[in-house]
Design brief:
Layout: H1 2-19, E1 25-30, E2 33-34, E3 48-55, E4 75-82, E5 92-93, E6 100-103, E7 110-115, E8 127-134, E9 158-162, E10 181-186, E11 189-191, E12 200-206, E13 214-217, E14 225-226, E15 246-251, E16 262-270, E17 273-274, E18 278-283, H2 299-308, E19 333-338, E20 341-343, E21 352-358, E22 366-369, E23 377-378, E24 398-403, E25 414-422, E26 425-426, E27 430-435
Parallel strand pairs: 2-9, 11-18, 20-27
Antiparallel strand pairs: 1-3, 3-7, 4-5, 4-8, 6-7, 8-9, 10-12, 12-15, 13-14, 13-16, 16-17, 16-18, 19-21, 21-24, 22-23, 22-25, 25-26, 25-27
């Protein structure tokens, strides 16, 4: 039986090839099973909608201007019903007078069929069957053998089923979608008292809801502010965002603008919940009373130091970076970290660290933890020449911020390696130490008083009795 079917398929393919139009293939029907009376089984006009998808369903010229259905003479679609007792009706063209018609234009991959439930797909256990052939031009023939145009052979029959009596349409749980998350906020740092400072933020994220979003400041969901626009995927200059990021805008209300250095926590919320928070820093402008400048190394000295640098500098110490072939001068150099030590299990806010570095360039560097470059994350800012308290830094230094991801927060005491990646240039790593809890000092009992090893002193002899003098007469 299978061999005969294979020979039939080869013969049909050869016929289609000889006639110049390939055989139509109906690969899928959606829905495949119809549940009469279930919610949404009919459209607003009382029809059952069936989507047929496949290949070669229209003329090979791919012109969607061709009319669909047998009236146009390009797609020759026929339908018939099969009762629950397996009794079939004659094949008829798919026109509305016959209980089914094509909706929309002629395409080669999709056919949308509107079906009259009074004729088909309403009897439990019954079926609707569809087949078609395609001609390269308008043709009124009922069969490809009588066509006056180049024509395809008949397609295989596609059957759409009606559920048996009493069957209930299964509830399909959609697969869980990736959680929404914020990737960056621009600007990430706002200078306090700067008349030119912009409080209008660009908030970037992934998997953000297309619905109207609200922005939550410092966890105040009741005071959430509606975003100024819906999520879109192009930036302010018209270029597309990177990596599928969505973008919304929001202006920080005055009540959330800090008057002293600190951080403003920001999240985006829809009806299903809020994203994890990102922070925007408020810092003071650079003070004029700068720290004593440290003379910068000359280029030759820096390159020499980079070549002789020992890998794995200790926490909080300067390192000269690395020299990458093809790059003039040293690569990024981490000079110090703040903090240099963290406690295992400390609160989340303690995991945001400051990295002080030189030779960063204008782009936002990536931070590499434990040498894992494949999982490097962008820093939260491109680096500033003023510290968080407004004080200027050492010559050539910039400070940037990063929050240590959960996967790198040690659960046991030990070091965490931190390095910077700028393009292909990578700094020598420095170590940040995770410390365990302080050991509890045992309280020793008080020692008993020492006893004297010498014999007690003998009591002093009693004084001799006083004898009254004798008076002689």
């Amino acid at each position: 039986m299978r061999l005969a079917a294979a020979f039939l398929g080869l013969a049909l393919s050869a016929l289609g090839s000889a006639q110049g139009v390939p055989m139509p293939i109906i690969a899928k029907a959606d829905p495949q099973m119809v549940y009469p009376g279930s919610p949404g089984w009919l459209d607003e006009y009382g029809r059952v909608l069936i989507y047929l998808t496949g290949a070669n369903l229209g003329p090979p010229d791919r012109d969607m201007g061709h009319p669909a259905g047998p009236e146009g003479g390009y797609q020759h679609i026929y339908v018939r019903g099969v009762s629950s007792r397996n009794v079939a009706t004659p094949w008829v063209p798919a026109v509305w007078d016959n209980g089914a018609r094509v909706l929309g234009a002629c395409t080669d991959t999709v056919i949308l069929l509107g079906v009259d439930p009074s004729r088909f797909l309403s009897e439990p256990g019954s079926h609707l069957q569809v087949k078609l052939w395609v001609s390269a031009g308008a043709d009124g023939a009922d069969d490809p053998s009588g066509s006056h145009q180049m024509a395809s052979p008949w397609s295989a029959i596609k059957t759409i089923d009606v559920a048996p009596a009493g069957a209930v349409k299964p509830v399909v749980t959609p697969p869980p979608s990736a959680p929404a998350a914020l990737t960056r906020i621009v600007p990430a740092d706002i200078q306090i008292g700067d008349a030119k400072a912009s409080y209008r933020l660009k908030v970037y994220g992934t998997h953000l809801s297309p619905n109207a979003l609200k922005v939550v400041f410092n966890g105040d969901r009741d005071g959430a502010v509606p975003a100024e626009d819906r999520v879109h995927y192009y930036d302010d200059d018209g270029s597309f965002t990177k990596g599928g990021e969505g973008l919304i805008h929001v202006t920080i209300p005055e009540r959330y603008r800090l008057a002293k250095p600190g951080q403003l926590r920001i999240a985006v919320m829809d009806d299903s919940g809020a994203t994890p928070e990102k922070v925007v820093s408020f810092s003071l402008p650079v003070r004029t009373s700068a720290r004593p400048a440290v003379p910068a190394l000359s280029q030759a000295a820096a390159v020499s130091a980079a070549r002789t640098a020992a890998p794995g500098a200790q926490a909080g110490t300067a390192n000269p970076g690395t020299t990458i072939p093809g790059i003039i001068g040293p690569g990024p150099q981490i000079t110090r970290l703040n903090p240099t030590e963290l406690k295992v299990g400390d609160r989340a806010a303690a995991f945001r660290i400051r990295i002080y570095a030189r030779h960063l360039g204008p782009e936002v560097p990536k931070v590499v933890f434990n040498g894992d470059e494949a999982m490097a994350i962008p820093a939260e800012d491109a680096g500033r020449t003023a510290d968080d308290d407004g004080a200027s830094l050492q010559a050539g230094e910039k400070v940037l911020h990063v929050t240590i991801p959960d996967r790198y927060r040690r659960a046991t005491p030990g070091p965490l390696s931190v390095s910077l990646l700028v393009g292909k240039a990578k700094s020598v790593p420095v170590q940040l130490l995770f410390k365990g809890p302080e050991p509890v000092q045992a309280v020793r009992p008080l020692a008993p008083a020492l006893r004297s090893t010498t014999s007690p002193a003998a009591p002093a002899p009693a004084p001799p009795p006083v004898v009254a003098p004798t008076i002689r007469r």
